[in-house]
């Protein structure tokens, strides 16, 4: 920590920043209202699966918002960011109009800034720790919006800077999976001079960023641009390759791979195991979103089909549930409903997604839980039985536990149900490595100081370690693993 | 991208493709399958690896043309590429020396049955095989099957080849005649359902290989779920073979029809496009 705060102080002492601080009094900075993100009108956007809801700040808006940040001597915001982005440094660069430099600051620590600016639950992370929230009881500086602005600006204006890479050291390392954990690991290792290959089971790189999060929140071309950057730096990508099946870890070691980063995600959908759940028209959010986001099933010219519902119920209250219900609206649902067993306060989804869903006309049936499904003569779901819930004592997670209210059962007509009640770790890798330590939930056990598993040359991070978590936590794990694997390999090579 | 090196038609609607896939050819075991996609707009579909040549680095796929994706696959010529191909997927068949094996294949189910029959024979079992189809020209791989079977019975619905009758008639004859230790059936769901009812009567342990609808094939989506012994299982990672006496075949048949309307529309669009192109 000592080194970090020294670096932050040194950066903050830079002449241009001292000048900026003097230019505007904090009192005046505090008078500015937080910027609001321009958005596509709800009536328009519900017709397009692939048009982004947030349209991004203008340069003027961003520079104005940047003034709000007081360039604190003790920037607590950074502590809220899992990859420790130097937040005041990038924001002050926006304030003085050096947007390109702001983008470079982001890239010092984040491999995918345009992605995080869009999907991070900022209100729980960096922005929650901002001085405005902590001490002034005012809305935080819009760190996420500014981050997105800087990254987009760089992409849209002029050349994307390709970060410098060290001279090749010829040591081969690989990732299992290509989600945010693996990509940020790959970005850091290629910078350190390693020969990096990313292995991905699906036919597209990106993990959940591609098959899960819809284009109205995260356009695929933005992910692709960031991937292009990695490719330019020299990362090899191998799609349609399942590590442990297409080739074993031993095969890969024989080919010269010295160490692995497992970022295989939490891709196994959970169902509720209630009667009727296997009727047609009841599917996991993973299936629904994959058909649409990865396979483009909503377009006539693609071969993959998707079911269209008129009355759609989505079970769950996380980001996945919001993405599914809003996708259903865009695919023509007349009624799109969230069924969630707790109250809105406990919903794990980003606040912005809940707000957007409401604006678009999604109905919220909170404090309700499905008990059973009914089908028609063809086996397609036609209705569901639910029960009302109330919140009881807090459970192990600290959230108040939902308990069914006896006698409150009721029925609803539905013709499509998306189950979004969580995911479990993908068992493909653990099942192919008997010596790997896993928890009873199937997550890989790692030393959290260095992300190393019970097999020394295997590091792991992201959802396969944490269960379902976030993009930025996955990226933080990838970075830490890269740093520690580098030490591990350097030690090994100097000893031998 | 995987290159098609050879192609032949077994019948008007059944095609065999030999495809370059060196890693899969080396890693695959009997019972494994692949998922492939033809074209950038293509759908991911599962096909069993009918056989493989590890030295040449190729795998054989045998596909019955039923809809858009299998039509596109059958149109590929040697030298063309399959856009995406991933595998080997699924649990391999549990092969052991158990004594006498009764293997029953219906329609295109004969293709995935071939490597299993071969493996059981090589493990030292006596293998009796029953092949069935609607008519003579739909019977495939008869010679290859004969090579690995101690006895081979062919059944056709119309009697145009072998004996007339359903696959179950051929099976029952054997079950009545001698003690069978294990049975494996692969074919249309409805055939597997009746085969399972039959072997249950004779108390012969039976495996069926299911052809559920799939998307990713890695356990990620749950499209392929089936009920086995009252529990939900994923065909792609827990299967494709399950204890036939515990499979809920009626539910499976229902789920296979889950996208029928969409598939029909897609096929119509496809035929229309073809007509336009031909004109
Ligand atoms: C619909 C949805 C919306 C979400 N919204 C948000 C959000 O707004 N904000 C947020 O922060 N988080 C969100 N999340 C969570 C976030 O996406 C995940 O926490 C994050 O993607 C985890 O990253 P990862 O790198 O661990 O794995 P993943 O992104 O899951 O990627 C793992 C990849 O590994 C591949 N793989 C698995 N096994 C193998 C193998 N053996 N060989 C090769 N490849 C393999 C998989 O195919 C997959 O592509 C959302 C998740 C979903 C599903
Ligand atoms: C493990 C496994 C192994 C298989 N092996 C073979 C094989 O060796 N040879 C062979 O000819 N067929 C095999 N099949 C079936 C084959 O996958 C389907 O016939 C094919 O997907 C149909 O696609 P289509 O677009 O041509 O037809 P469509 O018009 O899309 O569908 C026709 C019927 O095929 C089934 N089907 C549709 N989409 C899928 C899908 N994505 N996955 C699975 N089934 C689907 C449905 O029952 C549908 O009603 C296998 C299936 C599984 C699950
Ligand atoms: S990466 Fe996420 S947590 Fe970190 S500063 Fe950006 S938005 Fe905040
Ligand atoms: S805590 Fe808030 S005001 Fe202070 S430096 Fe960070 S973003 Fe700026
Ligand atoms: S095909 Fe997706 S889980 Fe089996």
Automatic annotation (TrEMBL), chain A:
Domain of life: Bacteria
TM region(s), chain numbering: none
Residue ranges constituting the Dihydroprymidine dehydrogenase domain according to the UniProt record: 51-158
Gene3D superfamilies, per database record: Alpha-helical ferredoxin, FAD/NAD(P)-binding domain
A Pfam family: Fer4_20
Domain FAD/NAD(P)-binding, first and last residues per copy: 172-478
GO MF entries: iron-sulfur cluster binding; oxidoreductase activity
Alphabetical list of PANTHER family matching this protein: GLUTAMATE SYNTHASE [NADPH] SMALL CHAIN, GLUTAMATE SYNTHASE [NADPH] SMALL CHAIN-RELATED
Protein name: Glutamate synthase (NADPH), homotetrameric
Organism annotation: Prolixibacter bellariivorans
TrEMBL record, chain B:
InterPro entries: Cbr1-like_FAD-bd_dom, Cyt_c3_hydrogenase_gsu, Dihydroorotate_DH_Fe-S-bd, FAD-bd_FR_type, FNR_nucleotide-bd, OxRdtase_FAD/NAD-bd, PyrK_electron_transfer, Riboflavin_synthase-like_b-brl
Organism: Prolixibacter bellariivorans
Positions bound to FAD: 62-64
Positions bound to [2Fe-2S] cluster: 221, 224, 236
One GO term (biological process): pyrimidine nucleotide biosynthetic process
Domain of life of the native organism: Bacteria
Keywords from the named record: 2Fe-2S, FAD, Flavoprotein, Iron, Iron-sulfur, Metal-binding
Molecular function GO labels: 2 iron, 2 sulfur cluster binding; flavin adenine dinucleotide binding; metal ion binding; oxidoreductase activity
FAD-binding FR-type domain segment(s): 1-95
Names of the cofactor(s): FAD; [2Fe-2S] cluster
CDD domains reported in the protein's UniProt record: DHOD_e_trans_like1
UniProt name for this protein: FAD-binding FR-type domain-containing protein
Comment on bound cofactor: Binds 1 FAD per subunit.
Family annotation (SUPFAM superfamilies): Ferredoxin reductase-like, C-terminal NADP-linked domain, Riboflavin synthase domain-like
């Amino acid at each position: 920590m000592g080194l970090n705060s020294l670096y932050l102080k040194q950066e903050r002492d830079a002449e241009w920043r001292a000048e900026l601080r003097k230019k505007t009094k904090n009192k005046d900075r505090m008078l500015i209202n937080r910027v609001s993100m321009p958005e596509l009108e709800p009536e328009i956007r519900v017709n397009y699966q692939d048009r982004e809801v947030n349209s991004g700040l203008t340069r003027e808006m961003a520079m104005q918002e940047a003034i709000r940040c007081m360039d604190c001597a003790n920037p607590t915001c950074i502590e809220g960011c899992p990859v420790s982005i130097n937040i005041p440094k990038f924001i002050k660069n926006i304030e003085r109009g050096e947007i390109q430099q702001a983008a470079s600051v982001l890239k010092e620590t984040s491999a995918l800034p345009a992605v995080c600016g869009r999907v991070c639950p900022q209100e729980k992370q960096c922005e929650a720790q901002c001085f405005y929230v902590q001490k002034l009881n005012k809305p935080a500086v819009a760190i996420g919006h500014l981050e997105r602005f800087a990254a987009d600006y760089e992409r849209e204006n002029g050349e994307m800077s390709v970060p410098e890479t060290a001279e090749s050291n010829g040591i081969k390392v690989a990732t299992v999976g290509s989600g945010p954990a693996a990509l940020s690991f790959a970005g850091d290792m290629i910078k350190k001079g390693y020969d990096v290959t990313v292995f991905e089971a699906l036919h597209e790189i990106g993990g959940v960023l591609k098959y899960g999060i819809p284009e109205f929140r995260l356009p695929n071309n933005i992910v692709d641009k960031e991937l292009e950057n990695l490719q330019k730096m020299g990362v090899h990508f191998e799609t349609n390759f399942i590590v442990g099946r297409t080739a074993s870890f031993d095969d890969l070691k024989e080919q010269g791979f010295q160490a692995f980063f497992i970022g295989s995600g939490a891709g196994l959908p959970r169902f509720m195991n209630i009667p009727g759940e296997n009727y047609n028209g009841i599917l996991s959010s993973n299936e629904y979103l994959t058909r649409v986001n990865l396979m483009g099933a909503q377009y006539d010219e693609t071969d993959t089909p998707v079911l269209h519902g008129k009355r759609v119920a989505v079970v769950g209250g996380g980001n996945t549930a919001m993405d599914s219900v809003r996708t259903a609206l865009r695919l023509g649902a007349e009624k799109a409903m969230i069924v969630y067993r707790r109250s809105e306060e406990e919903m794990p989804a980003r606040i912005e997604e809940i707000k957007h869903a409401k604006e678009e006309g999604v109905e919220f049936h909170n404090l309700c839980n499905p008990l059973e499904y009914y089908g028609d003569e063809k086996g397609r779901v036609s209705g569901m039985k639910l029960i009302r819930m109330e919140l009881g004592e807090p459970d192990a997670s600290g959230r108040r536990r939902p308990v069914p209210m006896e006698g409150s059962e009721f029925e609803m007509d539905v013709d499509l149900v998306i189950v979004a009640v969580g995911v479990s770790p993908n068992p493909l890798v653990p099942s192919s490595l008997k010596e790997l330590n896993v928890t009873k939930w199937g997550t890989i056990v790692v030393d959290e100081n260095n992300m190393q598993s019970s097999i020394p040359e295997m590091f792991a991070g992201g959802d396969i370690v944490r269960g379902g978590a976030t993009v930025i936590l996955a990226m933080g794990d990838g970075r830490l693993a890269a740093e520690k694997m580098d030490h591990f390999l350097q030690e090994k090579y100097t000893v031998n | 991208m995987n290159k098609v090196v050879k192609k032949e038609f077994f019948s008007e609607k059944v095609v065999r493709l030999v495809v370059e896939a060196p890693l899969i050819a080396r890693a695959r075991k009997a019972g494994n399958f692949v998922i492939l996609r033809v074209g950038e707009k293509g759908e991911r579909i599962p096909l069993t690896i009918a056989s493989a040549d590890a030295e040449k680095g190729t795998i054989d796929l045998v596909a019955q043309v039923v809809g858009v994706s299998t039509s596109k696959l059958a149109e590929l010529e040697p030298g063309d590429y399959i856009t995406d191909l991933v595998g080997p997927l699924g649990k391999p068949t549990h092969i052991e020396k158990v004594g006498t094996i009764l293997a029953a294949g219906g329609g295109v189910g004969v293709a995935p049955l071939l490597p299993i029959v071969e493996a059981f024979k090589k493990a030292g079992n006596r293998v009796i095989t029953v092949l069935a189809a609607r008519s003579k020209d739909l019977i495939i791989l008869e010679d290859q099957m004969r090579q690995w079977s101690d006895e081979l019975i062919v059944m056709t619905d119309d009697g145009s080849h072998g004996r007339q009758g359903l696959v179950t008639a051929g099976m029952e004859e054997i079950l009545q005649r001698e003690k069978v230790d294990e049975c494996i059936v692969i074919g249309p769901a409805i055939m597997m359902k009746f085969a399972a009812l039959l072997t249950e009567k004779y108390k012969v342990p039976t495996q069926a290989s299911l052809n559920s609808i799939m998307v990713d094939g890695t356990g990620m989506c749950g499209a392929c779920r089936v009920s086995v012994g009252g529990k939900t299982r994923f065909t792609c990672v827990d299967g494709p073979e399950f204890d036939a006496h515990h499979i809920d075949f009626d539910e499976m048949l229902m789920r296979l029809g889950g996208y029928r309307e969409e598939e029909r529309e897609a096929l119509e669009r496809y035929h229309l496009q073809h007509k336009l192109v031909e004109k």
